[in-house]
Structures are given as C-alpha cells and as structure tokens.
Design brief:
Heme Oxygenase, Chain A, Haem_Oase, single chain, 10 helices, metal-binding, heme oxygenase (biliverdin-producing), mainly alpha, globular, metal ion binding
C-alpha cells in the first residue's frame, strides 16, 4: 500500500501556498502592462512548482510499495509438483528425506519393524479395493466433466485387487467384508466428488501416486514377511509405469490451470485428510 505521508505533506504545502502571502512582492508595472490574468498565471505556476516534489514522491512511494507475486513451492513446475511438495512434508523422516512429521502411529514406523499378519493384510486389501472401486466409479460417472479425463489411465487397481483376493481364496483364506476405515473413506470420497471437485482431486492424486511409490515398497516387504515373496497383481501395471504417471500428471496440471489460486490452495489443504484416511486403512495390515 502506498505511503500516506507524501500525500499529507502535499496537502499541507498546498494550503500554505494559498494562505500565506508571497514574501517577495511582484514589481508593479501598472495594470495596463501586466494584465490580471498574467498575474494569476504567475501565482498558479509558483504554487505548482511548490507542490511538484511531494506529488512526485507520492508516485515513487506507490511504485516501491508494490510487492512481487508470491510463488508457491513447486508452482513453477505445475500444480502436481505443488501437491507433491505438500504430501512429502507430511511424511516422517523414515519415509522420505523431505518428511517433517514425527513418528507416532504404528504404520509410520519403518516397515522392517512391522509384524503383519495375513488376516490383517487381507483386511487392508479388501478396504483398498473398495476405495479403488469408488474412485473408478466416480470418474466414469463424471459429476464434473473433467473427471472423465481420468478414465482408463492405466493406474486403475480394482481389477488387479479382484485377482489377488481370488488367489487368497484359492489358498483357503476367508475374504472379509470391508471394514470401517474403507467404508468411511469411500463414503467421504463420494460426498466430495459431488460437491467439492478440488478436494476430490487431492485424494485422487495422493491415493494413486502414493501406491506407485511407498505402496510398492510396503507391498514388497510384506510379501517377503508373510507371502513367501509372492508379488501380487496389486503391484503390477500394464505398460511403462513412469509413462502412465507422466500422462496423469499432465492431465492433472492441465485441469488445474483453470483453477483460481484459492481453489488450488483448497485442494492442497485437503492433503492431511487424505493421509489420515489412507493411514487408517494401512494400519489394518498390522491388525
């Protein structure tokens, strides 16, 4: 905001110029030689010179007060990078080098210290399938037109999880019904998708992209511990995964280009809720 001081100074000078008589008298050559109009012009010109400097200072003050546009972390690379930056901060130092969160929950400890069970892992897979079923159904229904951009991205997991659960059934395991964490999250995603698209996209991004990174690492470690190193379909993708991810990144960035800064910030603010719900489901592995 421009400084008010120069403006008040200019007003003060302007009043003084009118109220205080000029100290040096003007030579009297007679009214016939110097018309009244010329005398008036002389006085106005004198006042103009007296207030010129303060007015100029006001303009300079307004210019120097302007602040450069704020740049958000990752903004120069696109909105996906902004989402990634916020998500990384919510990891622990054991989970990511950029993490700032203290380790509090059991699932936040290094996976090497976990004690998973097949029963708990099955509950995790069942609840995860419910969430992915919900995500895939939402984009197909497309309550907002841009949701349709994310149909058949190659990152879908519902079909792969169905195959994994069938394999467990063939091994003699009882497949449980979805539990509270999965049901609660699926309902929340449905609600968001219909009235808050920016918040929904935050969850969409974090669910799919987290699974391709930390999710894969967890799957590998758990398989070594309780599945004799079997690789589940949940952790396999058709085609080059890096290319699939890049394609979805490009689409997410394109969609976010039409959002206001406030809408983008609202999306970023939803990250913590995304982590909470996903964490509740991941904790089932240790149940």
């Amino acid at each position: 905001m421009a400084s008010l001081t120069p403006i008040s100074q200019s007003q003060y000078v302007f009043r003084k110029a009118h109220l205080k008589p000029l100290q040096a008298p003007i030579a009297n050559f007679g009214s016939d030689f110097i018309p009244n109009s010329i005398s008036l012009q002389f006085r106005l010109a004198t006042c103009s010179r007296m207030i010129k400097s303060p007015l100029k200072a006001t303009v300079v003050s307004a210019t120097t007060a302007e602040k450069p546009k704020r740049r958000y972390p990752g903004e120069a690379k696109g909105f996906v990078e902004e989402m990634r930056f916020v998500a990384m901060k919510l990891h622990t130092r054991d989970q990511a080098k950029e993490g700032e969160k203290e380790t509090k929950e059991p699932e936040e400890r290094p996976v090497s210290k976990w004690e998973p069970s097949i029963e708990g892992y099955l509950r995790f897979l069942v609840d995860s399938k419910l969430v992915y079923d919900t995500l895939e159904g939402i984009v197909e229904k497309a309550a907002f037109p841009f949701y349709a951009e994310f149909i058949n991205t190659g990152l879908e997991r519902s079909e792969a999880l169905a195959k994994d659960l069938e394999w467990f059934k063939e091994q003699g395991h009882v497949i449980p019904e979805p539990s509270s964490p999965g049901v609660t999250y699926a309902e929340y995603l449905m609600e968001l998708s219909e009235k808050d698209p920016q918040a929904f996209i935050c969850h969409f991004y974090n669910i799919y992209f987290a699974h391709t990174a930390g999710g894969r690492m967890i799957g590998k470690k758990v398989a070594e511990m309780i599945l004799n190193k079997k690789e589940l379909e949940f952790y396999k993708w058709d085609g080059d995964l890096s290319q699939l991810l890049q394609s979805v990144k490009d689409k997410l960035n394109k969609v976010a280009e039409s959002w206001t800064r406030e809408e983008k910030n609202h999306c970023l603010e939803e990250t913590e809720k995304s982590f909470k719900h996903s964490g509740d489901i991941l904790r089932l592995v240790l149940s």
